[in-house]
Amino acid sequence: MLIALLSAALLLALAFVGADLTSDRALFSLQPPGGGAPDMLPAQRLDLHRTFFTIWAALVLVVPALSLFGFRRRSEHAARYWLAFWTAALLVFLVHFYWAVVVLFGNDWQRILHTPRVSAPRLDTVFAVWWCVDVLLAWTLGSEAVWVRAQRWGVHLLAFVLFFMGAAREGELLWSRGLGWSLAVCVAISLLLLAVRRARPGVRG
Q1: Shortest CA distance to 168 belongs to which of 156, 183, 154, 155?
Q2: What percent of the chain shows pLDDT beyond 90?
Q3: Which ranges of 106-203 would DSSP assign to H, the alpha helix?
Q4: Which of 49, 48, 83, 51 lies closest to 66 in space, CA to CA?
Q5: Are 167 and 183 contacting, i.e. CB atoms less than 8 angstroms apart?
Q6: Which of helix, strand or coil describes residue 154?
Q7: How many domains does the chain have?
Q8: What is the domain range of residue 168?
Q9: In angstroms, rounded to a whole number, what is the distance separating the alpha carbons of residues 202 and 205?
């Protein structure tokens, strides 16, 4: 857990430092996707950068969590690292969520719900709450009941879809799209390894 928390702290620090160092550059458009009138003021550029940089930090942390997810019931070592990075990624994601909702949009849900800059605000909110619930269950329940396992697969699948689509498809920068595709590659490799292990005689599936 310590490694994951230190990674989260380091990535958050790098995110804020990176945002500060690039706040005078037009890395991200002040206009929403598709053009139209700008929905961000030039004075908000620093907070806009912090919003993007923090979601990148969360994405980096969610890669090992999603990659280890399928192995958590086969290895105590994998289970510990999965939970550590799943929790650390959530903490960083909550920083991003706060910065986007409260700081960038001023907690104005009318703007959030009607801007093309946020593709699925309701789903993102449900996901944030669901992720918190799953982490709480993981830390408080000693074993996985069927319903816990079912919802856990659901929230991990949703995490993959939202992070991948947000970065690989909707990312403005090559760096963002690269992170999204790196997530997909890592998860695909982990699924392939999991399938190989299941196919081996005598391996518990």
Answers
A1: 183
A2: 71
A3: 109-114, 121-140, 146-164, 174-199
A4: 83
A5: yes
A6: helix
A7: 1
A8: 2-199
A9: 9
Nearest Cα residue to 26 out of 4, 48, 55: 48
Give the closest residue to 158 by CA, choosing from 130, 186, 122, 116.
130
152-182 in b/e form (b: 16+ CB < 10 A) is beebbeebbebbbebbbeebeeeebeebbeb
Among positive and negative, which fits the CA dihedral 174, 177, 183, 188?
negative
**Alpha-carbon distance 106 to 112, whole Å?**
9
- Greatest distance between any 2 Cα atoms in the chain: 62
Integer Cα distance of 89 and 59 in angstroms: 7
204 lies in some domain: no
Q: 161: which residues sit within 8 A by CB, 6+ positions away?
A: none
The predicted-structure confidence for 121-135, as pLDDT tens digits, reads as follows 999 999 999 999 999
Structure tokens at 187: 């998860």
Q: How is residue 195 written in tokens? A: 């399938």
| Angle (nearest 5°) at CA 46 between 45 and 52 | 90
Q: Tens of pLDDT along 69-124?
A: 999 988 889 999 999 999 999 999 999 999 999 999 999 999 999 888 888 999 99
CA distance 187 to 174: 20
pLDDT of residue 205: 42
Between CA 50 and CA 114, with CA 38 as vertex, the angle to 5 degrees is 85
Q: Hey, what are 82's tokens?
A: 């999965």
Q: Is 40 helix (H, G, I), strand (E, B) or coil?
A: coil
